Amino acid sequence: MNDRLSRVQASRSAAVKARLQHPVIDTDVHVNDYAPVLEDYIQHYGGNALVDALRKALGGRFVTRTGGGKDWYQQTPEERQYHRTLRAPWWARVTRNTYDLATYTLPALLYERLAEQGSDYSVLFPNDVLSPAAAGSEYRQPLHRAINHFHADQYRAYADRLTPVAGIPLHTPQEGIEELEFAVKTLGLKVINIAGGVRRPIRAIADKYPAKEHPEIAKQAGYIDFYGIDSEHDYDPFWAKVVELGVPVTTHYGSQGWTGRQSISNYMNNHIGHFADGSQAFAKALFFGGVTRRFPGLRVGLLEGGADWGAHVYTHLVDRWEKRNRVAVRNYDPAEADVALLVSLFERYGADYIRGRAGYESTPRHLRPAPQPRARRLGDRRLRAGRHREDGGHPRALGRQLLLRLRGRRPHRGGRLQHARESAGREDQRHLVLRRRPLGRARVHRAAGRELGPGRAGRDRRGRLQGPRVRQPAPLLHRGQPALLRRHGGRTQAGDRRVLNTTREDKKTCDRPCPFCADRPRHCSCWPCPHSPPRRCRPHPR
Asked: Sign of torsion, CA 361 366 372 378?
């Protein structure tokens, strides 16, 4: 049966390919090796011992064995919790589409279906190409060489459209160079695949607890060497050989089992994003280790991590450079701090933190300014009530300013008459309109240089005679204060002018206590206690 033509016509990939004017190269096609054929090849290549090493390495790829040699599926929930056994995947191969199952196993069928998938050339990544890394130092290098040789022979007949990658071990730079030269010069392979890192023992712990005597400790106490930075080996000869031979370096390095990917119950929790994290670690090591600078011709492909992680790494590299380059990093130099200013600020705003401490007493006296009055806390009950002001200011004005500060607003300086007089010469500020001033005070205002208006003719709505209006320059008031003034008896007019109905000089006091502040005389004004609701009080006769 030959249904190749109908499948090509039904392929959406082929339809997209037909609209393109350039060839399409698929750089990451995973294929599976037929185990009996692979094992026969390995047996003839290196004997039965090499086959046993291959089986052991392949069996440990997806199965974590702890607790007496049991894998995750053989352990009870209590044993998984006790040993912290990492959850392994299940059903890792596509099976429902039987045609696809055979395609990624049989090279001839894959070669025939390339047109169906819409590609002209494919780079193949056999699933077991890096499995020899788990075979141990005795079998690692010969097993890598045997598998690379098998793939080169299997796909040589289809080399015009298919090429497999060569797995290269990098536990040491020398073994990497040897296998690289054999794969490229002898086998004719065009792309190499490496692991993004090598797990190594921490020597201080390994010397104290040898792996042969304490295998469990050796399994846990280790670190990952990413080649480019902080490595015990110099990998520059390997990178130089890669550039010399002109082959690209690829990796599918994952991070399952790292911190944050150690779930003992959910495989997807460990799997999502693990290729991106592994690629990010490898890329940063190459960059910060200077590999990309020393070898600008090095071509590296980091696969199966998506595109977002690359943008993420690039953005953060630029960000860190802007903040910590050799010029900007001086912003963090302790020598740049103004010690005298720092001591002054601590003395003024944090005297309780430093007074009496050894470090403060040892500070030179020329760096220790004269003690300043301690600023009271805004939460002080007496200050919220407007009493006990150290500078002798009016208690109600102080209470009003503190209330504004507690509400996150900046208090103004135009609420009191003496403040308005101080700013009488400012031409760029608005006028404060004071109403119902006694007519006898007109001379006082003229002497102060203020303009006395005639006032409105007739009576107001309540039948009271209108007094003259006094216009005087006053500071700009905060835009958030009109509502607050209305709540304290004031009101606003057009042009954002404040209308204050009275001032401190006109207030008549009596000895009767205020119902809202029992320990303070009651004032006849439109400014009640800051803690009281808006109201207007009337004067009481003395």
From this structure: negative
